[in-house]
Amino acid sequence: MAAGYDELSPGHEFPPVAYELDAEAVEAYVEAVGAERRAHVPPLAVAARAIASLGELMELPAGTIHASQDFEFIALVPVGAKVSCVATVVKKLARGPMRMLTLELVVSDEHGAVVQRGRSTVVLPEAA
Amino acid sequence: MDMPVTAGQQIPGFTREVVQADIRRYAEASGDFNPIHIDEDFARATPLGGTIAHGMLVLAYMSEMMARAFGDAWDETGRFSARFRSPARPGDRLEVTGHVESVNDESDIVVVTCSLSCRNQAEEVVVTGEARVNLSV
Asked: How far apart are CA B133 and CA B71, in angstroms?
């Protein structure tokens, strides 16, 4: 069951979420962003799916938006690769009506080798 | 980049128009269906007053500029730190630009640090970022 903001605390590690970057998914991404086609998966396609996978783990309110994003690309990811993403809560800030959450994401290949790291900070809409 | 990379060098940029159909296409490709991006009625009722592009879509444009300039080295060794300053909205014309801040020799690699930015047609800053890429020598 997806966790809500109030249930999360720094250090909380979510279970890994696995996904496949098959040719169809990569082509859809390349078309959507107007990227040049290459022999491997564009690194932000890997990241985009990793971030979207958080939706399976967390129930953040509609209207949550990105404040900052860091990436480190470590290895090329071949088309068709199966990868998994582990997300950890790094920071949680609630001040008045403002709520923010920082997550670290580590994406690994089928052999457990890390291919990408990222850190996302999101701002939640003010609670009603 | 074909020529030697030097500090101050401009990275060839490009412009992109933000259209709602592209935002929808990106939502489907990424799996991010946050209604702030795709549900105009929902978004109109928020403080943002309308839909906005996914931040990751704007970053994809900036990453693409780096990939065109540095090829696979970017996709394999790139580091990117970005801050979202203002939303990109349908109808906006985004200009993605960058320049080389520094070039440092570190034994068998050259570390290139770049400053990136994305602005809209009103010259408002949408995203700022710093990128780093390692080039083999």
From this structure: 10
Q: Where are the domains of chain A?
A: 3-124
| Domain residue limits at B83 | 10-18+52-136
Mapped onto helix, strand or coil, the DSSP state of residue A50 is helix
User: Min CA distance, A18 vs chain B (Å)?
Assistant: 14
Name the β-bridge partners of A104.
A88, A119
> Which stretches of chain B score pLDDT less than 50?
none
Q: What is the CATH number of the domain that holds B123?
A: 3.10.129.10
| Distance of alpha carbon A112 from alpha carbon A108, whole angstroms | 5
Is it true that domain A3-124 has CATH number 3.10.129.10?
A: yes
Q: pTM for the full model? A: 0.94
Residues A6-22 have a mean pLDDT of 94
Q: Which is nearest to A87 in space by CA: A45, A41, A44, A49?
A: A49
Q: Which of residues 21-80 of A touch B (CB under 8 A)?
A: 25, 28-29, 31-36, 38, 40, 42-45, 47-49, 51-53, 55, 62-76
Is B56 part of any domain? yes
Number of domains in chain B: 1
Of B22, B36, B63, the CB nearest to A44: B63
Q: Does B51 touch chain A (CB under 8 A)?
A: no
Classify residue B36: in a domain, yes or no: no
Higher pLDDT, B104 or A55: B104
- Identify the pLDDT of residue B1: 66
For A70, the closest chain B residue by CA position comes to B81
